[in-house]
Each structure stands twice: as structure tokens, then as C-alpha cells.
Design goal:
Number of strands: 23
CATH class of the largest domain: Alpha Beta
Oligomer: single chain
Number of helices: 11
Structural class: alpha/beta
Strand content: 25-35%
Largest sheet: 7 strands, mixed
Distance between the termini: 12 Å
Length: 417
């Protein structure tokens, strides 16, 4: 059971704000390394629909290094070994994961809440780990120019959590980075994404698919008994679209994905369509005395490539590798926080640069185009030379500067489940 015991004030070795992929992985690694850690999660559970659900080979490799991969893969999931798309009338594969240098040569599609619950259950086996659900950080506690804790609203009222280090893992709308006055560099995004579900039939193909057409882009992700669909629209256009008849939207879906047929009628109203407002940004400086941000709180990613979860997890591993020893000693210097940013800023910039390039060269043109489109040169090369599909698979599946588990298990051995 997740611990919701209140101490007022609560003192811990590290306070992590946000129970997403970065926060839960970091909490697990620090507790495993013998650090007392408290994770504050504002919701009552991890169940949120249409969150990122792609667990890439790099993250699965970390599970292998931790010795928990086999248990993790017992959870319901789908395995994607190749990504395919249709550009105009041309169908092609653009990422082949069967050759990536990891134990798992596939992307695992798994509901994010299952991933987070798995990490929470593993973390709770360590005596130094505590997670406070329904506990929302509202402000920072500062003394002598340093952050020394957070104030939060909990089921028992307002509480204080004090720690030598606060780590903001509370996403792209981070309260922590806002309260810290950190400067955000907005890199721009020309699109938003509408998420919805359509049921899947046994006769449907297994592949996760993308359809790139003049004026619209549709992605369909195989989730077993349903398709999780993402419909890309120009930035800020949802209100205009929503003022129209939902039947017109269903018609567009049927045109883009004829195999759905009458199943598009399952999208009965706009209430079944969730808007993801796409943002691409990053902090100029991720840290200050007593505080650092990682994951989306430090750098919001475009959904292009589905790498957000995995980049956040990589941040968590790097932070644990660098900070676990200082945290056990009870003090973390700004120089050590700077090492985390230096380690992770380069891969962040590289991945965001690639996403911005795709946005500029592909997405913007397609959404504005109302005529016939032709496959670009890169698509033609993927079609002609399948070996080239290993390159995007390596970039998406393994990433730039992949992290590895360097922390030792110093806490008491976990109890059996």
C-alpha cells in the first residue's frame, strides 16, 4: 500500500515533486541506493488516459540492468519491432528496431499507469521510500537564498516537506520551476494533437501506423483491443474545429483510415476527444541551490518519436548516478547539480533539434497543404534501402548518450512481493 502518513513537518533526504516517469524512476533508484526519499504526487492514483505509453529499448535495458525486466514484461503490453507509415499513397517502414544493441529489440506499448504502479510497488519495498498521494506542492521554502523544502496541500491539510534537495519532476506545467523563477526558452510548436480511441478488430493489422496526407496527419497505435489515435491539427485550431459538427471530424477520420469504417462512429462527441497542447521548451539553467528540475519540468518534448518518457527516465538515471552519494552524505553542491544538467543537456538539445526539424520540414508543410503530396527524398530512400531504417530506430530506441545504472543497491534487500 502506498504510504500517505503525514508528518508535520516531514523531513527526508530528498523531496521529489511529481510521480511521473522521471519522479518515480528517480525515487526508486535513490531509495535503492540508500537515500531517504519522499515523492509528492498530487493525484490520488496514476490513472490518466492518453499519456505517453511508449517504453523504448533504452528504458527496457535499464530494467534489465536493475534485474527487474522479466517481472516488468509480465505486465500486459504490445511489442512493436518496426514503425510504418503511409505518405500520400506510398507505404513504407521508417524504423526497424530488430537490430538495436539492447536486450529488447522492440518498443513496449504499455499504459503509463501500469509502468508507474510497477515502479511504485518496487520502490515501496525499500524502507527509505515514501510516496504521498493527493499531495500537491504549492510553494518552495527558502532560507538564506537556498531551497530547503516545499509547502504542499495534502488530505490532512497544509504540510511542509524539508530536504537537502528538492527535485522538480512535475511536468511541463511545473509549479516548482515557476516558483523558482527559472527562465524558460520556448522553442515553438506548429501543432497540437487530439487523442481518442477506436475499437480494434481481430482482422485489423498489428502494426502501429501513421498516415501523412495533405492537410492532416493521423497516428494509430495498437493497444490490443483498441487503437489509440492521435490526430495532428494546426496549433490553436481546436476551438474552431470543435465548433463544427463531430460528424465532419468522423468523416475526416474515415478518409484517413478507411479500415475504421463505421467504427469512427464510436467517437460520438467532442467529450471523447482529448486535446494535447504541444510545447517544446527547455530551461536555460536547470538548478539553483537546493533545487533541480529534470524531465518535462526541465525540457518539454514534442510527441514526435514518442521519446518523452524515455528522455525523462534517462534524466532520472543520470541524476541518481551523480547525486546519490552526496545525498547520502546529506548535502548537494551546485557543482554537482550542474553536472546533471551538463550530462543531460546535450542529448536534450539533440533530440529537440531533430523534432524541430521534422516540425519545420514535414509537419508544417503537410498541415498547410491542400493539394497532392509526394514522398520526400528521405521516404524514397527508406523504401529503396531498408537497412537505412536502422538509423532512426537507433536514435529513437537508444537515444543520444544513453544512461546506465551506476548506483549500487545499498538499502536493505527488498521484501518479496
Amino acid at each position: 500500500m502506498l504510504d500517505q502518513t503525514r508528518r508535520d513537518p516531514l523531513r527526508t533526504g530528498c523531496c521529489i515533486v511529481g510521480g511521473g516517469p522521471a519522479g518515480m524512476m528517480l525515487g526508486y533508484l535513490l531509495a535503492r541506493a540508500g537515500v531517504d526519499v519522499a515523492v509528492l504526487e498530487k493525484h490520488a492514483d496514476f490513472f490518466r488516459d492518453f499519456r505517453g505509453d511508449t517504453i523504448h529499448p533504452s528504458t527496457l535495458e535499464l530494467m534489465y540492468e536493475l534485474g527487474i525486466l522479466s517481472d516488468f514484461l509480465k505486465l500486459p503490453h504490445q511489442e512493436v519491432r518496426e514503425l510504418k507509415a503511409t505518405f500520400g499513397n506510398a507505404e513504407f517502414g521508417f524504423a526497424d528496431f530488430r537490430h538495436v544493441p539492447t536486450h529488447c529489440k522492440f518498443i513496449a506499448l504499455m499504459p503509463q499507469w501500469d509502468f508507474l504502479n510497477f515502479l511504485a510497488e518496487r520502490s515501496c519495498r525499500y524502507p527509505g521510500f515514501r510516496i504521498l498521494m493527493q499531495t500537491e506542492a504549492t510553494d518552495l521554502i527558502e532560507e538564506s537564498g537556498a531551497v530547503v523544502g516545499v509547502r504542499a496541500n495534502s488530505p490532512d491539510g497544509r504540510i511542509e516537506v524539508r530536504a537537502p534537495l528538492v527535485i522538480g519532476c512535475d511536468g511541463r506545467h511545473s509549479v516548482i520551476r515557476s516558483k523558482a523563477g527559472m527562465e524558460v526558452e520556448n522553442l515553438g510548436a506548429p501543432m497540437d494533437v487530439l487523442w481518442f480511441r477506436v475499437s480494434r478488430l481481430p482482422s485489423d493489422p498489428d502494426d502501429t501506423m501513421g498516415k501523412f496526407e495533405a492537410g492532416r496527419i493521423l497516428v494509430a497505435i495498437n493497444r490490443g483491443d483498441y487503437w489509440q489515435c492521435g490526430y495532428v491539427i494546426p496549433k490553436g485550431s481546436f476551438d474552431d474545429l470543435r465548433r463544427g459538427d463531430i460528424a465532419q471530424f468522423r468523416q475526416r477520420l474515415a478518409q484517413s483510415m478507411p479500415m475504421f469504417g463505421e467504427r469512427v462512429g464510436e467517437v460520438a462527441s467532442w467529450d471523447q476527444v482529448k486535446l494535447l497542447t504541444v510545447a517544446v521548451d527547455r530551461l536555460k539553467r536547470w538548478y539553483r541551490r537546493g533545487l533541480i528540475c529534470i524531465g518535462d519540468a526541465a525540457h518539454a518534448m514534442s510527441p514526435i518519436g514518442g521519446v518523452g518518457i524515455n528522455l525523462a527516465v534517462q534524466d532520472a538515471v543520470a541524476a541518481a548516478n551523480i547525486l546519490s552519494d552526496p545525498l547520502r552524505a546529506g548535502a548537494v553542491s551546485e557543482a554537482e547539480l550542474a553536472r546533471v544538467q551538463k550530462r543531460r543537456e546535450f542529448p536534450t538539445r539533440m533530440i529537440q533539434g531533430g523534432q524541430l526539424l521534422v516540425q519545420k520540414r514535414v509537419i508544417t508543410g503537410l498541415l498547410a497543404n491542400q493539394g497532392e503530396i509526394k514522398p520526400p527524398l528521405l521516404v524514397k530512400l527508406f523504401m529503396a534501402f531498408p537497412v537505412l531504417r536502422r538509423i532512426p530506430a537507433r536514435i529513437l530506441g537508444v537515444g543520444v548518450r544513453p544512461e546506465h545504472i551506476r548506483t549500487l543497491e545499498r538499502a536493505r534487500a527488498p521484501q518479496p512481493a
